[in-house]
Amino acid sequence: MMSYPPEKKTVSIVDLGIQNIHSVENAYRTIGADVRIVTTVTEAEEAQFLVLPGVGAYSRAVEKLSDTGLDRVIRRHAIEKRRPLLGLCLGMQLLADASEEFGCNEGLGLIKGRVIKLIDQPPQFRVPNIGWREVRPTGNSGLLPDGGTCAYYHVHSFHFKCDNVLDVAATTHFGTQNIASIVHRGNVVGAQFHPEKSQEAGLNMLHFILHNLK
Questions:
Q1: Which residues contact 28 (CB under 8 A, 6 or more apart)?
Q2: Strands 10-14 and 50-52
Q3: Annotation says 89 is catalytic
Q4: With contact defined as beta carbons under 8 Å apart, do 207 and 1 qualify?
Q5: Catalytic choice (25, 77, 89, 184)
Q6: Which of 4, 68, 102, 186 has the smallest set of CB atoms within 10 Å of its CB?
Q7: Which residue of the set 77, 162, 196, 207 is catalytic?
Q8: Does the pTM of the predicted model rise above 0.85?
Q9: 199-212 vs 22-30: helix axis angle to the nearest 10?
Q10: DSSP labels for 33-46?
């Protein structure tokens, strides 16, 4: 396992009460971060580096963000304060304008695009997309460790289709579909896969983004 520098950087992880954030919390502690769990608007307002993880239904996550007022704080964090924001798995999809999962649900609108369903391509590529998939940089972002191809653990049935291809930082193949695995615009980044479940490669990515996303 790679060793990480001892200097502390503070990470605030959004807990909506509908996802298990312990593996994300443990991953950041492993790379030496000072971790704070965010559940309220006040806590989120104080965040310097904000992480939005997520699993489950898009509509439920959007409802929780709206009910708690965290949607407005996250937008303000990213747009007005220009502070770094990282979305993981469903958290990445929430960065989009909207999702077609269970109807049309409005997202945070931080990176232009929509979340659409993956298409089954039997026998090898079936929805949901589960397992280790090779992620390839597009050259549009410098936020990948060593800038190289690496395998990360994916679990998802929908994917983020960006309006602007320059917002796609890395892709992976799902049959004949070339889908976005990492999106990046300015101070906002999203990863479709689970870096916290991707062993050393995932930890390296979390560490690199923490220290380089401005």
A1: 11, 13, 35, 51, 206, 210
A2: parallel
A3: yes
A4: no
A5: 89
A6: 102
A7: 196
A8: yes
A9: 70
A10: -EEEEE-SHHHHHT
